[in-house]
Every structure is written in structure tokens, then in C-alpha cells.
Fold:
Amino acid sequence: MPSRERTAFSSLFMAVRKARKIAGLECFSCVLCGHSKAIKPVLSVNKDKEVGNHIGVTPANVPEVLKRQSKDAIVPNNGDNLLNAGLDVYPTNRKVVAKEEEVPQPPTPNARLLLHKESPDTKVVPQKFAGDIRESNKENRQKKHGQRGSKQPYSVHIPQFYFPSGKPGAGPELEAILQRVAQEFSAFEGGKAYKQQMAAITKACGFPLYWKILLFRAAGGTKDGCITYQSLSVLLKKLFQTCHDDASKFMKMACKTQTTSLEFEDFEPLVQDVVETHPGLTFLQDAPEFHSRYVTTVISRIYFCVNRSWSGRITLPELRKANFLQTLRRLEDEEDINQVKDYFSYEHFYVIYCKFWELDKDHDLYIDKNDLARHNDHALNSKLIERIFSGAVTRGSDFQEGKMSYKEFVWFLLAEEDKKHPTSIEYWFRCMDLDGDGAISMYEMEYFHEEQMNKMETLGIERLPFEDTVCQMIDMVCPKSEGKITLGDLKACKMTNIFFDTFFNLDKFLEHEQRDPFANARDPNCEPTEDSDWNRYAEEEYNILVADEGNADMEEGNYEDDFEPEDEEELMREEMLRLGETNIPSRTITPGQSHTDDNIYDFSNTNLGY
Structure:
């Protein structure tokens, strides 16, 4: 279409829209839309009178070509048909004379007709109200999405995937549990159960055996000294309605009121009950002074493995990820406590406590820097000891400047002997990260390496250049960022023990240097071992401690058998002379002769020096 014609058609269309707005109609049904019947605007127009920009189109003005169009077809509104038919489509202040005047038909109220702009191949949609068309379109959309007749917008249903208290499932029937519990209570005198009788009730509830003290305390046993069926049934109903897995139930019974995490003190009743009732710890009944030491050791080991956030509070997700609940259930079936190497082994406690007892000279359960420096024959780096006592790895409110408590020593020994454990890696990374920027730089590695080289020179060993050590460590760890080693790099490395020993422990560093590089290659014919470095260390140290104690007992037992009768008589004589005896003549006892002929223990005539 030429530009002049296009401009004329646009002006005509704007005039139509202006007239439509004045008349209150959506469409004039004029030739512009292809309709055969024209509707004039509601204006008083006289015959053969100028009407300005308003257009009066009658059937007489419609070309014969457009009249022959099908009623279901739409003529393109490009203006060419009008021009070809001889119509004046340039309404800019031109006179448009209505040749034949029809009686104007006022529009029906609310009858708003739509102007359809569609292609020539599209059939004319019957004239409807705008609201009806919107409802029709909405119904079509609802049918498309399978929501026919629904007034709600389309939405995708996403099933719940996070269950803070465990996913509800087909658990044990509460009514059956209450019936078994009621049957157990009926056998008790007065319907009251005491702490010693909680084993049967705990099993009737379907809980592990060593949850019994937690169940007893949660049902009010601490206050009254006993529990009843009514108090326990209330607890069980609330427990099974809100908690749907073992971790959430354990958390609900063990932690204090209005708390959602476990503190150190929350585990003390549980571990104390294990000490008092487990068959593998019956020998501890005669040594109550060691109960608190064992309880502290076990809980410290639990926090070392479970509390991955270092917050001092064990959360529900941490409890689910750890193996503590499985280990606690295993105690019920294992009579030998030493076979449960995670957390509860008495042999492991014996090793830890003996190591601490050797360092704690005043036995106040606290050691200082000098005491810790004597660990493992002064093998630790002195700068490392300074970092440990600076509070870099200290947790809890019992921190004392310049002092290390027994709980902190448990963490230290576990981290020292098993540097592949995730908590151990974090422990030593905190010590080595001097500026706390989350990465170990070359400066920080050189800071600890210098101390190691000074100790090697003292022992007469040739120094190793720092550049060679750094190259070896970088090749071993393979950090992602050049020039620094992050915590993620060390956790991805399989030889973190060698990395930390190079800077912290001289004895272990020299041991790694002198070891056959192919010694770690696994024999394809041997079975893989699941023991950790800590389990191997504890087993070796326990055997050494038991052997030393056995040798000492053997020496004491055979001490008197090493002397002949003459020697015994001579020792007796020397002891009496020391006490002031000078009147007993010397005599010889022949073999077979008893020295009890005379009462040598009669000191009535002897001056003993009192």
C-alpha cells in the first residue's frame, strides 16, 4: 500500500474509533469490518448536510464486491477495497455526504460489540458480550488443564518433602503399645514402676533397652521416684503423635523442656545408667570414683563425632546423621563393652585417662602448657601448644586461660591420633589458620615448619628446605587455589595425617619419612580393614599398659621368692639392728631346721627405740 493511502486509512480508522467512543459502541458494523448492515452513530444528521469527520455508510455505499462476501468471512481492513470501490477514505476535514439516510437505530444498553481483528481465513465469531467471551476463554483453559468447572487458578501440587520430626508412616500401633504397657504395670505393686523396673516397660514400648532412664525421667520419675500408667500413657500419646522416628523421640525425651538441642548434661543420666546396669561394666561397681571419669569420656567422644557444628549443642539433623543411636541399641545385644568401640569401650577410656593422669602431676583434672609439652616425649611443636591454649579449639564455658580440662584433653587425644577424622581435620585446621581467613597460606606453613627444623637440628638431623616441603605438600593435597590450602582441600585429601604431622609432630613426621613409600599399597589378597587410626592406637596402647602393669605385679609377687633363708635371716637381723637391737646373737639355720624353735618375734626384752 502506498504511503499516502496508508496515511489516509489510518486517519479514517482513528475517526471511526472517535465516533465509536461518542456513540458508546464497540463497532459500527461498517464496511471496515466487512458487515453488510451499517449502523450510524447516534447523531442527528440531516440529509445532504456536512457531518465533518463522522462517516455515514449505508448499504447503498457498500460495493457489490463486499456484498457478495460470505457472512462468515472477514474482509481484510487494509483500505484497498474501499479505494477500489470509489469510496473517499480521506476524512481529514472532507465532506462526506450521506446519499441515503436511514432511521438511526439506537444501540441496546450493554450491547457492546467486539471489533474482531483476524485473518481472512478465520471465520467470524458470533457477536457476544465481552463478559461471555471471557468466561468462554476461561472454561477452555480449565478444560485444557483438566480443571473443568473449577474457579481456582491452575496450580501444581508439590508433595511435602521436609518432615522436622520424621516422616509419618506405618509405625507401631499406639493402642497395642498401651495395652502391653498396662499389662506390665498390672504386675507391679500399687501400679507403680520404679527405676529398677523400667527395663520391661521400655521393651513393651518398643524402645531400645538403654532408653529406660530417659523414659523414666520424661514420665516424671525424677520428681516422684516412680511412674504410673497414667503418666506414662500421656507421654506416649504425645510422643507418637508428634515424633515419627527414633531420633526425634530420643531428642524429645532427653533434652530439657522448651529446648530443641542436646547439651552435655543431657547425656549424663543415660551414660550413668549404662555404667550401673551393663554387664560388661559390673567391675566398676566397686570403684565409684571412676564413674564420673568414664561418663565424661563417653560424652566427650559423642560430641567429638556427632556435634559437627562445634556449637556444644547436638541438633536433630546431627543426631540423625551420626551412628550414636545405632551404637546405643547395639549395647543391648553386646555383653562385652569393649566390643563396642564407638563411644563406650572401657579399654579406650582406660587409655585416655592413663595418658591424662601421666601429664596431670597435681591431679586436679587440669593441665597447663608445660604438662602438655611432655606428651609423647616432647614430640609436639611448641607453637602448636600455644595455639591450642589460645582458645582456637576450645568449646564451652569451662574454658580457663592457660589450662586444659579433661574434656578438652579427650578431644585433643582423639584428634592427635586420628588425623583423618573430619573433626580432627577441622581441629588442626583451626590451629594452623593463624589469621582466621579460612585458608592456610605459605606464611602459616613456614611459621610451624621453622620450629620443626630447629628441633631436627637439635637432634643432629639435616634440615629440609622449606621450598621442598611446600612442593611436597602441594603435590599431595592438590589445592584448588594456587598458593593456599582450604579446609575443603584437606577433607578431599586422603593423607591429611601426613600433612599435619609434617608441621606439628616431629616423631611422626620422621616416621613417615623413613617409611617404605610402597608400604601403604594394599595387598590385593588381604581383606580391607575398617578400623580407624584411633582404634588401632587405643588397642596398641592398652596392650602396652596392661603388659606394664602385669610385669609390675609379677615383680612384686616374686620379690620374696628371690631370697634364700640365710638372706631372709640376714635382712631380719639388719632390720633389728636398725631399730636398736644389739643383744641377739648370730646363729645359723641349717636346712631342715625350723627357725620357729625360738620365738624370734618376742621383743619383750628388746629396746625397739620407742
